[in-house]
């Protein structure tokens, strides 16, 4: 073969795997890059109030990704909005729950360069561009790493595609986890540069890669990568030293010195984010993580290594039958990739410079599986390492996936060059082991399937896995038999196999929805934007998805974020079932609406789905009789002599068939002369059976009667329980003693709480309490102008017992400015959580913040007119950014100056 033909063949062996990566992106996110779909769970957004009432979404692709739509994506959108408005440092986000750091720490992932680059594109395409950048970074990193250890660029591309389509990288998509994990391959490339070249120039990328890792948004898995990279560096240093025949000395310490120096430079680059993050963690209750090392994944999920859909998905009729949430447990590498890994360990080394590498990759990947699925003493020892004690150890699957992916890359190159192994018993044994292993796992899946229907639903994905095993093993066998074109055969078939498995897997879990589903505007949004002002709202049973209303500039009490211990205790005092997880919280029901704690937290409005009935008594509850009658267009009426406290009507529906999507229950409230006082309606849903509540606005109703409520069904007929009069029974839900009012019923129900105190308020006196439960019990008994303080704080604040007038001049996310005109000394109370990093100034002079009302900010203010400022100023905010800038300049100078000197000579 002449050199030209050889070069062309080698070029195709690189281009074909790269083409597979491009096709993967085009198929999975192509429509989202063009804005035709939204790359995210917009369909899941539509399942909660206020969107569910008017949704046209038929089903949900993946119900396991609620964190992305109530926390991650809203944070990205808020940061994007702030950057677009000219705020170059959106440090704090105050709209959800206690508020949390935005760009001040890496926790939200909004300062990741990947996220910031994606923010240059339209909002609806942002998540798709993040995924493209992640894939580009990860695949580029594996290719660079592969070339450094003697593999082909094509092998690096195959390894990269396996990695980005692995279980961890697919299931955690749209979280910061994948933004962080995408950097993993570059770390190992940097270490190889340092070990092989041993120059400062070779070490220059290292601090930038570590900084990119730290800014990814999920430090926990960054720690995993650093530990594995450290072990890798030590091993490779020993192996390269041995292969070079070196006995030691100062030269051998140079890679260590370069690595440590690069790490120190990385700390200088990101200290302005890491230091506030560490300070925030110190004030956060993480005790629930103390036993994390004991948590392991259900070993049934090991079958997902080759067959990712074997246990079902997050949204199908049969459900997911493992005990572990699939997002935590699916460990997919690929059936074809498993065969490639077998090839890597049974075929001869491609390059002697790779000695020890494949066994390190295999051992580290196996250790990740052991930690994830077996645990025990190994996990206990691992959690003793620094920064691992409060870590979810089973998420080492992220770095474990990269180890197996690179091992598969070695196998890809080994297969392409395996003609010399045609007589190797070990090689043929490895080839046969792949199909045998696949067959055994398939038999286990078939035996463990909970039903025939389940097996039928997953059979297609099982067949694809079997085909992938057989195709990869077949190519392996042919390359050992063929003398010509064996490399090109592998370069064609293997990327196609990996691509087919990747697309099949992602299609089951990556939602691509209509762009309009991205927090679309509703009448509820419009009402709250007009009326909420400086105060708060709260969602009941995940209405507005635990604080996703912040996308529309609405401040909410619920959220999905870490909170201070005091703030969390106060929320539990208002509603003991507020927290569905240590970080996710929403009003569990409407019983808590009368809590004086919510008054102090300045909760002016509550939002609930139209089908969630509030507390109250049912008028006419004993009038039902056995049987069923038809409810349709013909109105049914009930006369109320006392309409005070009317909250809605109640129906009893019995079994029925399919309901048209546009079927609606309409309620009209009329005065004694037949004039319309209020009207409301709600969609009749397929789940509506038994007792059904329809809200009625109470703001326009008279205090005395009589009034008539008239009910009819539009667009359908249903069977309802009859009343004693013979027609469908209609009851009225009333709560005359409750001050909470229904003020809006379109799309969702809005409850107004007139007793809520202003978020900025003046306290002219104080009482003392210590425990949150004690303080919460006192909140309904003390005057509104009395603050609750701890005894030590109360001794430091002067109270004159006189009122004050407040003018809120600024209420931005990380800055508030209030003009106080006080007749006597007192305390300006701001009903936001007192957290690290917040400082107060009165007339430009720093003053200490005190904890008011058990968890909130209190600023002592003397008599007279004063300007009070509250600002978020994270620790080191005045010096650490300068350190980052100087470190950056130093690194750039260390690269440019030697180059200029060489050019000058």
From TrEMBL:
Entries under InterPro entries matching the protein: Uncharacterised_YfhO
Transmembrane segments: 12-34, 114-137, 149-172, 208-235, 256-278, 330-350, 359-382, 394-413, 425-448, 460-481, 488-510, 880-900
Highest rank taxon of the organism: Bacteria
Name used for this protein in its record: YfhO family protein
The keyword Membrane belongs to this UniProt entry's keyword annotation: yes
PANTHER family for the chain: INTEGRAL MEMBRANE PROTEIN, INTEGRAL MEMBRANE PROTEIN-RELATED
UniProt organism field: Georgenia halophila
Keywords for this protein: Membrane, Transmembrane, Transmembrane helix
Nucleotide-binding keyword on record: no
